[in-house]
Amino acid sequence: MGGGTLRALAVAVLLCIAATAGGIDPKDTRMLSQPAISAEQICFAYAGDLWLANRDGSGVRRLTSGEGSELNPVFSPDGKWIAFSGEYDGNMDVFVVPATGGVPTRLTFHPAADMVCGFTPDGKAVLFSSPRFAFTSRYSQLFTVPVEGGWPQQVELPVGFKACYSPDGSRLAYLPVREVFHQWKHYRGGTVATIWLYTFADRAVEKVPQPPGRCNDTDPMWVDDKIYFRSDRNGEFNLFSYDLRTKEVQQLTFFADFPVLDASYGAGQTIFEQAGYLHTYDVRTGEVKRLRIGVAADLLELRPRYVKGAEWIRSHDISPSGARAVFEFRGEIVTIPAEKGDPRNLTDTPGAHERFPAWSPDGKYIAYFSDASGEYALHIQP
Asked: Quick one: which of 29, 30, 169, 213 could link to 276 by a disulfide (CB 3.0–4.6 Å)?
């Protein structure tokens, strides 16, 4: 297809309006993720930025506003600093910012993606994972970098993905390889997520036990003599604990509809996302509480606006006669003539996403998938 036809496509779908924000509740907002908690505050990611709130969910305010994404916030042990991974300068690097807000300070300068895991127990350095020295992108390794700046130091382990220190800093709980269950739910293959406990003094390794048939354990949190973590060993991801003295694993939450995601610990509370909302788990009482947090963000991606350009083209198909072609163009199904004629937007549904168009053999119909009903379903249209 020539450049003229692509230009015609761009003109035909110049007015492509994004979904409206009418379904977003500014008093009890969903899609909050990657939470962290301190004695006074919580921090979480939403719409590509980091936000702060009081521990009860009140007093929400924006912490970052960079054009790129800011991810993986963690509080320092004293609650005065927040470390995170950010794209301020076009690459994913480690930053720290005062928990009261301010100008973020960049700590790493390598072109590899540096993902924050936590702080050292003394709060003087940030622990992060990076593939900077790995021979393949399948693996990453663990490093620390001083909060005041300096050269990163590699942790004495060959591989590492997520990790946290024991309270006294003598041991480390870590995942050797990256999680693959994001692509394959209930994954049970050779690279299931496992939590290993490493002792620096004698380099001994202990593994958090898993049931027969394997499972995925992740997000280790070392609290006194227990390891808190997420696991799908009983079906959906929930919160579990492993007692280092008795060697027993206990299930702590029992959600059956949506998984527990992105768990972290601070000041007596484990905080996590579930069903798009943030929840806390009190390690002393076992109480689970859902937080009601309202985020009044401008949400630029949901704002109605004009867009154009062939870079928005995804899947496509050609009619049996070859007279027209059909494209998935930014969530719309559009047909374009090979030579003469007008482009046609068959769906014209700014609030839905249509995908994977296919032309019928007789040329009379086009099939595609649409999430207009709330779930993807197969549609057929003349």
From this structure: 30
